[in-house]
Amino acid sequence: MRAVWYEKQGPAREVLKVGFMPDPSPGPGEVRIRIAASGINPGDTKKRQNTFGYGMPYPRVIPHSDGAGIVDLVGEGVSDDWLGRRVWCYGAQSYRPFGTAAEYTVVPTALAAPLPDAVSFEQGACLGIPGITAHRAVHVAGAVERRTVLVQGAAGAVGQCAVQLARRAGATVVATVRSSADEEIASCAGAHHVVRVGAELIDRVRTLAPRGVDHVIEVAFGANVTTDLEVLAVGGSIGTYATDADMPTIPFWPLLFKNIRVYFVGSDDFPPEAKIAAAHALNEALANGWNGFQVGERFPLEETAIAHERVESPVRRGRIVVVL
Fold first, then answer.
1. Over the stretch 163-209, which tens digit does the pLDDT of each residue have?
2. For residue 195, how many C-alpha atoms fall within 13 Å in the half-sphere facing its CB?
3. What is the CATH class of 2-126+293-323?
4. Domain 130-268 carries which CATH code?
5. DSSP H helix total and E strand total for the chain
6. N or C terminus: fewer CB in 10 A for the chain?
7. In this structure, are strands 86-89 and 112-114 parallel, antiparallel, or unpaired?
8. Structure confidence by residue, pLDDT tens digits, 25-77
9. Helix (H, G, I), strand (E, B), or coil: what is residue 269?
10. Under a CB-based contact definition with an 8 Å cutoff, are residues 260 and 238 in contact?
11. 130-268: same fold as 2-126+293-323?
């Protein structure tokens, strides 16, 4: 099969190789997917750059955890009913060496979800990490029905999913954005109220939620924790999946006096049942009219290095996918 891989970490053009590898075979409980589209997430580029200092987990890595395609081979114990199914997958390169930047990938059946017929492979390839992270961030502190949820950074991939999933779960959703273009994205995702980041943000949110926000979904924990504290109700919660600072300073006593719960949400290690619930919720949203993501640029497999550079330094709005 054609594939992209790296055997050392570093800049995309220096370490990513394009070539041929043996076709993989599914093991017990696994399916093989002929990949039609491979999604790229910031985490994929950070692994390749060794941003977190973990080094090479395997001698050779095919990047990208998310993808979509058609099941063409099944392993022992897997029903033949899987054959020919359109699916999207997640976690293909989480604790596994070979992801979706290849003509084929192999994953356990639990990591493959049916892709609705009306949804493109490109959309399916964008769902995994952001969608599952968003679902967990929305629900990690408990049910959000009839509660007020604040989504910080609502125009981002996780933010868009969080807005949509929180609204579908019965929450009143307040979204924060940085520009008028982002306002449209957040509104299309389903936000009831959209607030521009700035000096009046706290007052605006307090006006919309006089009794306080019940739960915050946070993209920049270090920068925003003080703001979150100001708008949260007593006993509220934060589900954070990213930060602007590795070692953020937090207002400990004010958080304590308000009994704020903080959940750190890392998608690789969610409970399996949470991932399955997220996949079901995302498919339900798509089946009921959610349009998913705007795809900004598409690259052939041979230009995966350029695609990584676009993720690191975007030149236009939208997700980046590799198409096969």
1. 999 999 999 999 999 998 899 999 999 999 999 999 899 999 999 99
2. 21
3. alpha beta
4. 3.90.180.10
5. 11, 15
6. N
7. antiparallel
8. 999 999 999 999 999 999 999 999 999 999 999 999 999 999 999 999 999 99
9. helix
10. yes
11. yes
